[in-house]
Amino acid sequence: MSIRPSLRANADYADLKRLVVARGLLNPQPFYYFLKSVIALGMVGAAVAVAVLVSNPIIVLLDAVFLAFASTQVALLAHDVGHRQGYRGRRTNLIGRYFFGNLMLGVSHTWWSTKHNQHHATPNHLEKDPDILFPFVVFSPEQIASKKRFLRPLIAIQAFVFVTVLPLQAANMRVSSIQHLFSPAARQSVLQGLLISTHFALYGLLLFSLGSWPLALGFFAVHQGVFGLYNSSVFASNHKGMTVISEGESRLDFLREQVTTSRNVHGRALTDFWYGGLNYQIEHHLFPTMARNRLAEAQRIVKAFCDERGVPYHATGLFASYREGFSHLHRASASLRNGTAA
């Protein structure tokens, strides 16, 4: 998909930002995030209490599902704090990153920030966006030639394989975090390691308190699998199937690149809560520091602005968003199924 920016393209984003700033939509929202934190941590506490106090295996396993939901709500808070949406103070944000990322999730906040900031800088860039760099997934037919041949049977059915690996995302974040702590890019690696170790120690204590190793293993599998699936599902529909950018291709201006590589998901209050506001992916990419409770209002401004300036703006329903993404994956690997791949 090729899009030619207007002659004053670089000024368009400045014009849009002035509209957003005039409405106060970039102001920090500390009270809102205090309430969201209390709710999310309350859910985690309730889930832990049920696991410890209830002996019925069915209820305990259902509680593992609820804890996965609560864990993802904490992850969404970690995402927002990482973008400095709730607070502007450097120290406050750093404490929040350590608390929500390292301690509550067992994930290195510097690993996540490095990876996620690169995604925002180069969304859907085939060579640079870490969110679309998978050894067994291609987002453009041209990528097939760079993949290992023994993986091609998996790539041929990647739209189906992709779904099966989503539950593993929670484990992948932890493994990547630990590897990151041994790299030069990690800051305060000892402190981060201690907090992550504390997370695992407390989690191990929770599993031990269940009193039965089969139940503990079942709780672990359900919690981590559903957490990975829910966490991945929030992000899976936001960019997959939208405009991709290759290395030799001219980059668009900031406004057009962020809008055309992102997809919004229609929804009401329940969808906004389920997605943590990330269903307004276009607005989030244009204004990463904007608090999630201001995104809906910003969406109306951004949509009207894009329509006025002729910038393609794509929003669709929840199920249609997943269908578009998986259909794109299926089309991208079609040459492997029909035998025409190089």
Structural commentary:
This protein has 342 residues and is mostly helical. The protein has one domain. It contains 16 helices and two strands. It has helices spanning 9-22, 30-53, 57-82, 90-105, 109-121, 152-156, 158-165, 169-181, 189-209, 213-239, 254-260, 269-275, 281-286, 295-309, 318-332, 334-337, and strands at 264-265, 315-316. The protein has a two-stranded parallel sheet with strand order 1-2. Helix 1 runs antiparallel to helix 14, helix 3 (57-82) packs parallel to helix 10 and helix 4 (90-105) packs parallel to helix 9 (189-209). The longest helix has 27 residues, at 213-239. It is globular and about 65 Å long. The two termini are 23 Å apart. The relative contact order is 0.15.
Q: In brief, what are we looking at here?
A:
With 342 residues, the chain is an all-alpha fold. 65% of the residues lie in helices and 1% in strands.
Key traits:
mainly alpha, 342 residues
Write the layout of secondary structure elements.
Layout: H1 9-22, H2 30-53, H3 57-82, H4 90-105, H5 109-121, H6 152-156, H7 158-165, H8 169-181, H9 189-209, H10 213-239, H11 254-260, E1 264-265, H12 269-275, H13 281-286, H14 295-309, E2 315-316, H15 318-332, H16 334-337
Parallel strand pairs: 1-2
Helix pairs in contact: 1-14, 2-3, 3-4, 3-10, 4-9, 5-8, 10-15
